[in-house]
Amino acid sequence: MDDGNFDDITCPVPHPLPDKITMAHGGGGTAMQRLIEGCFAKHLDTQHHQDAAVLHADTCDLAFSTDSFVVQPLFFPGGNIGSLAVHGTVNDLAMQGARPRWLSAGYILEEGFPIAGLDRIVQSMGEAARACGVQVVTGDTKVIEHGSGSGVMINTSGVGTLDAKLQMGHQHIQPGDAVLINGDLGRHGMAIMSVRAGLAFESEIRSDSAALVAPVHALLDAGIRVRCMRDLTRGGLASATNEVCASARRDMRLRAVAVPVTESVKSACEVLGLDPLYVANEGRFMAIVAAEDVDAALEILGAHSVDCTPAHIGSINDGTAGQVILETPLGTEVILDQLSGDQLPRIC
Amino acid sequence: MKYLDEYRDPAAVQQRVKAIEAITTRPHTLMEVCGGQTHSIVKYGIDTLIPDAITLIHGPGCPVCVTPVNLIDHAIAIAEESGVIFCSFGDMLRVPGSATDLLQVKAEGADVRMVYSPLDAVRIAQENPEREVVFFAVGFETTAPANALAVYQAHQEGIKNFSILSSHVLVPPALHAILQSPQSRVQGFLAAGHVCAVTGYHAYHEIAEQYHVPIVVTGFEPLDLLQGIYHCVAQLEQGTHRVENQYARSVSEAGNVKAQELMETVFTVTDREWRGLGTLPESGLALRENFAAFDAALRYPLTTPSPGEDARCISGAILQGHKKPCDCPEFAKACTPERPLGAPMVSNEGACAAYYRYRRSAPALKDK
């Protein structure tokens, strides 16, 4: 700069984002500020002026949920940890009959993680949030040392508004009620496992990760008598049905042939010795509805399904042992039990 | 799904059940050898479809279940060595040793990795030349060829930081042991289809002849199992004891000769301890002398002797078919998949796990 000549002085151009996460991105200084502006605020429409967001709710009940996401791989066919982190929490709210309104997003980033990867993740979060009408209103970022994490971990918490008159819960389940699911099972778990195991199948298995807000509220708005809903995430249909039956002290009877599973998921499960009824889903839920409402409910669910078909898979019977009986394709009956941990692929 | 749905067809199943009913005139006790068959039988409720006169007892063919506790302890001790990456198939990870299991030591910091093939472990060894990679080579004749290939490949490529802890066992010696037991009730066998796909079934003629038992090489799908039961019952009714092959779509008399050659190159037959059965002569596979450098048992000798199995576990009687899981006083009480006393409660193929999962408490689903 020549003496006395200040013409060249301009506002400092923001440094372009470096290509990797550094410890400085979690330090609370300008590097962090640039990450917030260049990545989070850009995709999430978040106003980060304060650490806390002020929410304006009408007079109504609120539903509140939190979930942490540590999926590996971070990117998988059909989604990534970003879209998953929105769908997971939004679906937990929707299962209570709530309309998800606000989300928080907490990121734990590993030093050295590519910023371009983070950008893709946050972009997917933004798209997923906009698609189901939920706002990301507050967030936080921490950076941990290289080697002490797995790239990106995300926590989302969500608040939804709830019609106080809504009567839903396992205590409303009655004998004769029908058990419906909104589509085929096992895609998310097998998509993840196929990538992890390096297995290639004839047709790629894509995760079913999706927001369930629209189908849930379509059911409720149409006056379908929904007794209770559950998303079929970890532990799959088997865990969800067992949890509901145990809390409700009602027995459920499912027909194996009525449960839709795609050919590619079936094949992948056969190869690894897994049962699709125990495999995780991220865009599937079970609705227990009054028997008279089955046809109307299936029609509504069908209208909100992009690439799957809803199914009536069973019913609640008179028993009060809290167990789930599965009618096998051969017509025999077995217990559909809950697993104590993850399914482990078999030896041979 | 092609090649599977046909073997789960309800109408064909009903037809087979009727055929079995038609030929059954008196009680028969059959043993399905393989844990995969047990699981399929319980999962589909096949034992509830067949006539009451036919009793199915569950054999020793679950590789996880028959691996003795001291070998699990040895695996755990190796996994805890610093610098070791310990690789295992998934369903070995939860099997209890005398004090802990592999998942627990992983949580405590050991580098335990689940792999889907022994060749993955060889690749991990190549990628981590500064670390020692040990693969837990369990299984019957089904997994032995792939494990032999892993050792052979490591040998060919001069990979020095790879070794296996061999726990391989062989089916025919176990059948001899079961039939020689004075408590044995077994009148006929459904031999394990996948094992025979590798070994063929010539070794079974001698067993059928010596003990006068029919042996039917059988697959794993409902229709396979019913067909196997049908052939076995037909022989018992006629008083014959031949070896038959129900699973001809996968199994030939000679088996997979290439796989056998590979096993022969890398392994030699040795005495082996089985959980619940004790040490059976010439019942396992150990690395040959020229592959001894890949033997993890030699690289990491077990220094403290293992205290052995939990005395409450009756896995020996279960694995020999003397008792059923629900005969065990600890079944679903002190012993559950969460806190197993023995391996049969853990493995995907374990009889206790299958009963726990599909039969536990439904009053309508009585065990026969």
Overview of the molecule:
- The complex is a heterodimer of chains A (348) and B (368).
- Chain A has 348 residues and is an alpha+beta fold.
- Chain A folds into two domains: 23-162, 2-Layer Sandwich (60s Ribosomal Protein L30, Chain: A); 170-335, Alpha-Beta Complex (Phosphoribosyl-aminoimidazole Synthetase, Chain A, domain 2).
- Helix content of chain A is 28%, strand content 23%.
- Chain A has helices spanning 30-44, 81-94, 115-131, 187-197, 213-221, 236-248, 263-272, 294-303, and strands at 61-69, 75-76, 79-80, 99-110, 135-144, 152-162, 178-181, 226-231, 251-255, 285-289, 311-317, 324-327, 333-335.
- In chain A, strands 8-10-7-11-9-12-13 form a seven-stranded mixed β-sheet, sandwiched between helices. A four-stranded mixed β-sheet of chain A has the order 1-6-4-5, covered by helices on one side. Chain A has a two-stranded antiparallel ribbon with strand order 2-3.
- In chain A, helix 3 (115-131) links the parallel strand 4 (99-110) and strand 5.
- Chain A is globular and about 65 Å long.
- In chain A, 47% of the residues are buried.
- In chain B, helix 7 packs parallel to helix 8 (144-156).
- Chain B folds into three domains: 5-63 and 171-245, 3-Layer(aba) Sandwich (Rossmann fold), CATH 3.40.50.11750; 65-170 and 255-299, Rossmann fold (3-Layer(aba) Sandwich), CATH 3.40.50; 315-358, no CATH class.
- Chain B is built from 16 helices and eleven strands.
- In chain B, the strands form two sheets. A six-stranded mixed β-sheet of chain B has the order 4-3-5-6-11-10, sandwiched between helices.
- Chain B has helices at residues 10-23, 35-44, 46-49, 63-66, 69-79, 102-107, 118-127, 144-156, 171-180, 193-199, 202-211, 222-238, 257-266, 296-299, 315-319, 351-359; strands at residues 28-34, 54-61, 84-88, 111-114, 132-139, 162-169, 188-192, 215-218, 243-245, 267-274, 278-287.
- The interface between A and B is large, with 29 and 45 residues.
